[in-house]
Design a protein that fits this description.
about 270 residues; alpha/beta; eight-stranded parallel β-barrel; 9 helices; binds L-Erythrulose; binds manganese (II) ion
Length: about 270
């Protein structure tokens, strides 16, 4: 039991995706994030390889730490076309190298976001086994690339409308373990998991030391505090787990980011103290 007046220090880093704050250039948006009270930025991976010069300059100018890189690879690890599986592997390796260069926690990937279904190869192999085996093979290839690196690959389960392959934390943790690599970790998105998990707080806790990252969005995918998700028990679970990674806002800002985002930072920090 906490004594009266005793403060709970959260160990995790509060981050925000780079397109949410006010600003025309990346350097302006990173400066806004700092002013709002965020500790770090989550860079969107889409187009990042083409924006490298601007990104490197903005990171150097502002000194803003990079928490994570969110997706941004072509193809998919489970695409029916071999060339597009190859492309996903090649792009992920380049993005993982950038995560390592910037001291980030890692690269976020969803198993099959936007991927066409695999062919039905029954009775030779059922589709669930085919999906699992392709995914595992891709993850093992990427695990080999990041062996000995600090950066991790962060696998994100998505809700049923966005993924056939991976929708809950327990199977994602099992898959991480199957790779045999400590650098393959699971990430928890509060929007997706409050849809898919019957007990979202228990699922978060059960991720244990395989939890590598968190996405924060409310029930309606707006900024936390603008829907009906209760963030206090979720953040309480992170504190109790002594989670030392990052939690990044990935959501829609309705209203003025200069008002909405600092209010959200205050709400989340108060929820950690609750
Ligand atoms: C997609 O809904 C999502 O949550 C992203 O983090 C996927 O990269
Ligand atoms: Mn997400």
């Amino acid at each position: 039991m906490r004594e009266e007046g005793q403060k709970v220090e959260s160990l995790f880093t509060l981050a925000c995706q780079d397109h949410l704050p006010r600003g025309t250039t990346l350097a302006e948006r990173l400066t806004s994030l700092r002013r709002y009270g965020f500790d770090a930025v989550e860079l969107r991976g889409y187009g990042l390889l083409e924006r490298l010069e601007e990104t490197r300059a903005a990171l150097e100018e502002t000194g803003m730490p990079v928490a994570t890189i969110c997706a941004g690879f072509g193809g998919s690890l489970v695409h029916p076309e071999p060339a597009l599986r190859r492309q996903a592997l090649d792009d992920c390796k380049r993005l993982l190298d950038l995560a390592e260069e910037w001291g980030a926690r890692g690269l976020i990937i969803a198993a099959d976001y936007g991927t066409p279904p695999l062919p039905d190869l029954g009775p030779a192999i059922d589709s669930a086994t085919l999906l699992h085996d392709l995914l595992l093979a891709g993850l093992k290839d990427l695990a080999e690339h990041i062996r000995g690196m600090r950066a991790s690959l962060l696998i994100e389960p998505l809700n049923r409308y966005e993924s056939r392959a991976l929708r809950q934390i327990a199977p994602a943790v099992a898959l991480c373990r199957e790779t045999g690599s400590p650098n393959i970790q699971v990430m928890y998105d509060t929007f997706h998991m409050t849809i898919e998990e019957s007990d979202p707080v228990a699922a978060l806790r059960d991720a244990g030391d395989r939890l590598g990252h968190v996405h924060l969005a409310d029930s309606n995918r707006q900024v936390p505090g603008h829907g009906h998700t209760d963030f206090t028990p979720l953040l309480g679970a992170l504190t109790a787990m002594r989670y030392e990674g990052a939690a990044a806002l990935e959501c829609h800002v309705v209203g003025d980011p200069d008002v909405v985002l600092p209010m959200c930072v205050r709400m989340l920090r108060e929820a950690v103290q609750a």
